[in-house]
Amino acid sequence: MEVHSWFETSLPVLPKPESLTSSRTSSSGSITIPDRMQYSSAIYEETSFSSLQSDVSQDSSHNSHQKMINSPSVTHSCTGNFQTLTPQISFLAVHGNTLYAASLNEINVFDLTNYCLVDNLSCSGMAKSIAFVENKIFTSHQDCKIRVWQIASSSKKHQLISTLPTVKDRLRRCVLPKNYVQVRRHKQKLWIEHADTISGLAVNDGLIYSVSWDKSFKIWRISDLSCLESVKAHSDAINAIVVCANGLIYTASSDGTIKIWQRNDDGGKKHKLVTTLDKHKAGINALAINEDGSVLFSGGFDENILVWKKDYIADDHMVLSHSLKGHTGAILCLTIVDDLLISGSSDRTVRIWKRSREYGYCCIRVLEGHLKPIKALVAISGRNGDGVISIFSGSLDGQIKVWKVTTNSTSCTSP
């Protein structure tokens, strides 16, 4: 198969675990390159080599962002740039010194000390979300299942230990007709089963929450992996969920709304709707919330990131504070690290936003180079409080880029 020469030198394919012993280190020292590379033909078929330029608009409405991006107080570099064997990165997560990258029917696990591939989790459906609870890893999939993995103490490899709903849970409920719900014409399922792609997971206080394109979210007890409740939440697919330490749940949907949910005060299992946020003009793809739950960020197909702040008169409500403009495509993913918001878009750029006391939030840097929409983001802060963060961005072109960003003494100027 013909291989483009620039691809071989610029985008090394990480080796499978069994081939790590025959690898060599690139001149940059950040990527391990196998001696014998094998490439997926699908990568070449789906990648446009003429789209390296960013399509960020340069009209006058974005001039303030461009000034801040060029500020010398913000520096960045791409320290890692590698290609998975399968395209379409759908989710990224960091746990300890390990990076989990979901793409098509597998999850690749990388060691962050050397970016070597250390394990590969094969799945029958694309993974859409990953959550960690103690020594267990939960993954949600396009085949309507949640898989539970554990790392074997002997081999350090991931082992599949259960699938939700469990066989025990199914058998316990399958006898009674009242446990079945109509999911489409002439088809019924147990209410503990999702009927479409499970798009997101969140963990809080011994519970794991799953949201789905079937318009519902479900609550599972981690201790015995049983399903406690199913809530019909939206009128269209649910794409994202975040849960605060205080138990408030935020779900975002293609119906253009964010809904806030809370468990009943009487200690019961049922969740009730607190309020609905409906300022987006199109479907919502991503949510992020700060550590104390006082600020919520949402992004969707209307190309805007909305900033919601807690209403201290009604503690469980949020009010719209800012609308962040700059992306020229749908917002597909959001993440927070330190005091920074990071967004990924179908315009193939990553933007870094910082809050200013005087002017709200402003864009301090745009990271460019991906060939297709950016679907996944995860970020970690430096260990010494030196203002250095590492950002991992995953694209539908199969690339994972590692960015080192320094934000010392960064301030936003007036637009």
Strand order of the largest sheet: 3-32-31-30
Model regions low in confidence, pLDDT < 50 over at least 5 residues: 1-67
Helical residues, percent: under 10%
How many E-type strands? 32
The helix count comes to 4
Helix/strand class: mainly beta
Shape: globular
Question: Mind explaining what this structure looks like?
Answer:
The chain is mainly beta and 415 residues long. The protein contains four helices and 32 strands. Strands 3-32-31-30 form a four-stranded antiparallel sheet, with no helix packed on it. The chain has a four-stranded antiparallel sheet with strand order 4-5-6-7, with no helix packed on it. Strands 8-9-10-11 form a four-stranded antiparallel sheet, with no helix packed on it. A hairpin with a 4-residue loop joins strand 19 and strand 20.
Helices and strands in order:
Layout: H1 5-10, E1 23-25, E2 32-34, H2 41-46, H3 63-69, E3 75-83, E4 89-95, E5 98-103, E6 106-111, E7 116-122, E8 127-133, E9 136-141, E10 146-151, E11 158-164, H4 167-173, E12 180-184, E13 187-190, E14 198-204, E15 207-212, E16 216-221, E17 226-232, E18 238-243, E19 249-253, E20 258-263, E21 271-277, E22 284-289, E23 295-300, E24 305-311, E25 317-324, E26 331-337, E27 340-345, E28 350-356, E29 360-367, E30 374-381, E31 388-395, E32 399-406
Antiparallel strand pairs: 1-2, 3-32, 4-5, 5-6, 6-7, 8-9, 9-10, 10-11, 12-13, 14-15, 15-16, 16-17, 18-19, 19-20, 20-21, 22-23, 23-24, 24-25, 26-27, 27-28, 28-29, 30-31, 31-32
